[in-house]
Design a protein that fits this description.
This protein is mainly beta. About 0% of the residues lie in helices and about 40% in strands. The chain contains no helices and 16 strands. Strands 7-8-9-10-11 form a 5-stranded mixed barrel.
Length: about 220
């Protein structure tokens, strides 16, 4: 099988399962607010990614005004800032702004088609062969192999690489520092079929040199 992929790059994406990020905190911009009770629930927008968990939190209030906010469930699957509101009382000129988690491991983003299911967001659990991985989706857990298109049948797995211009490629081989890419069913123009390309651990691709494959 060759050298296996390092464990920090597989498993549940960034520790959040669905990929994306969680809500680390909510910033309260000082302003007028009234009518709140301590621990009133926040309403936090739904995650962007399928299978994500909606974040949960509450306000901390003194004399009816919001002093701060506490996140009790960070959630998962956020790729953009969700709206945050406190549904009781009156905010006035104050605002509530979500802050997403940062600094998570650059875990590989994938989709997979399991038997009896469909093509869904996937967490890579373990490497089983040169191009075969055990994955988990909302349909369960099973082994799938890399393909150069969106998975359309059971046992297929796709990892999409993105170049600095936003062009896409399907990964046909995965290594700890590089990937082999195929632009046939993608939109990328910086690399050709079979090129072995660096993948950027920070998620920032460099033109004609590296691609991003992480969530």
């Amino acid at each position: 099988m060759g050298r296996p992929i390092k464990k920090i790059f597989i498993g549940e994406r960034a520790g959040f399962g669905a990929g994306g990020e969680g809500v680390a905190s909510v910033t309260v911009v000082t302003g007028t607010s009234s009518g709140y009770t301590d621990l009133d629930a926040l309403t936090i927008g739904a995650p962007d990614l399928e299978g994500g968990v909606q974040a949960v939190g509450h306000v901390n209030s003194a004399a009816g005004a919001i002093d701060s906010a506490t996140i009790t469930v960070q959630g998962s699957g956020y790729t953009s800032l969700p709206t945050v509101t406190a549904p009781t009382g009156t905010i006035g000129t104050g605002t509530l702004t979500a802050v997403l988690t940062t600094g998570s491991n650059p875990v590989i983003e994938a989709t997979a088609f399991l038997l009896g299911g469909s093509n869904l967001n996937a967490d890579i659990v373990a490497q089983k062969g040169n191009d075969t991985y055990r994955v988990t989706t909302a349909d369960g857990t099973g082994e799938c192999s890399l393909v150069n298109d969106d998975p359309a049948a059971a046992g297929e797995l796709a990892i999409i690489a993105t170049d600095s211009a936003g062009g896409t490629y399907y990964v046909t081989k995965l290594y700890n520092n590089t990937v082999r890419v195929d632009p046939t069913n993608g939109t990328g123009a910086q690399f050709a079929v079979g090129d072995k390309v660096e993948w950027a651990k920070d998620g920032v691709a460099v033109a004609n040199y590296s691609v991003s494959i992480t969530a």
